């Protein structure tokens, strides 16, 4: 379906009006404060990008007059259930197609035996037809109960739909989608079974008047539906497994296992009864004409969507995302005065450092996960737990005496073992200052290397902060991390502040500008002045914090030569170290023996804090990230009362 300009404009207006009113409800349901819905003009399905917190919504929805706002919101919530599950376990979704193939093996074997002659079984067209047909039939069963789960999940998360008014809305909505309530007199037995069971589970707890579930007409199907599973009715069993009383989220993997073990056998057996006397003809495969929920996932679409999520770190997927976010990027650049040249250079930095950033993400996840420590606690003389033989022997005479009197004696002879979170002290703030040489001696190659190192380091720290915030949700202590950037030459300038009180977009814009505006136009190499400025700032902050361990400061200096004022630089570095600041220097570019000796005198006179890379410019981003790994690993191993000092990390 294509839209003319008038329809597209009207759809855009309806979309903006709808999401301005429902943005908070949608973000709350998605469980992501930064969640976004982006309209897509030429699309008939949702586009999920979980790693970016984005769902592409087809604008065609907002051209139809058949559905009002509440019905559109319901359908959007229902799609967000799949978004949440895809985001939670995309690895299983990527392997789910293989799971369906394995589940369809029994149906393929029966189809070969019942339908095709032995000579026809080896034909390529026959094998392709059987594989596609059986996969579609089996997958439809699993997708059908995905829709059932999404139905109840939305009702539990959005209380409005549990009210009589909301329940009536859902009943009318499903009637509107189907046109009429269906009867299964002409439907295959296995589909009668699947749809009838799904509706019984679907309308399990709907108010009277809304529960108009279809009734399977075939007596064979009715007999199967009356089958008891673990001593209870089949629909009640599925409802209890999919929607436990505890309210816990049931993973897709568990639901698939339930359907595969308890329903698939009946589904295949009824299918076999239906096709026993049917003659199959090979022709072009078309979509199923009847779909009561209009929510089945096409096989090809599912594979392509999951492949996009699975390869989310690849360049091809990044290019697709650029097209989706093009309009948002343009508005962002206009708002913060980012030129096309700056945007292009930043995109280059993202491409060249992408793999390094992905590696750092894996490291941050591992580091933050290990930082949560648990200890085992033991409690004795409990009424329940693990039997303590010694305690039982000591109270056994009393136990016998009370039992002889026919009186109850409460035995407290058990040990209880439970885990508690270890009491650790994490710094409340981590500040990382990047000091970058912008003197006239910085040539094109050095500038490119410094830009890459700066961009990937700041982006990695941003990732670390996001993972740390996720962990802080269940902890009392909270660690925040911020970065700032200075350019220095004959003088210095701060091009990126910590931005603690600024918006997320403002900080992102500063990060872009700080990464791409290094140009080598600041004259000499006076790093002493900027280091003195940082020292004065540290002294002010130390006076306001409660302890040495609540504030961690890291300074990373990138320079292409020795300092113009080496003695002042060395004294300032030593003073920063005495203040507990972790400071490291990185030298790039070719230097004379005299300049090399002077660099060592400034940075490595007492401890090796400076690294000479020379003409190995490509190593700068990797070495900068490795230093951050060591520093933040040390920070997360802090125990109460320990003081941070700069150490050799190479």
Automatic annotation (TrEMBL):
- Check the record and name the CDD domains matching this protein: vWFA
Q: Which domain of life is it from?
A: Bacteria
Question: Which parts of the sequence belong to the VWFA domain?
Answer: 431-628
| PROSITE patterns cross-referenced by the UniProt entry | VWFA (PS50234)
Identify the Pfam families for this entry: VWA
The entry's protein name is von Willebrand factor type A domain protein
Q: What is the lineage of its organism?
A: Bacteria, Pseudomonadati, Spirochaetota, Spirochaetia, Spirochaetales
